[in-house]
Amino acid sequence: MKKSTKNEEIILDATLEFAVECATFQARLDNGHRLVAFAAPKKTLQELGLQLGDRVRLALSPYDMSKAVILEDPPQEI
Hints:
By secondary structure, the protein is mostly beta strands. The chain has one helix at residues 45-48; strands spanning 10-21, 24-29, 34-38, 55-61, 64-70. The chain has a five-stranded mixed barrel.
């Protein structure tokens, strides 16, 4: 069986609620779903400028919706 090389991810907006550990947060999606959000690899919190209550854009795997990576660009306000 051939392994898929396609990198699938779901991009959603969320709010940071709690700081769990270093560069790890509990985030809440707009529909109320809570998940663990990790800061982007090789980025510090100062570089991302993250604080509790901030709106962030997350990349989730379609296979595990309980963990996400915080992307660099913030969500656009409409």
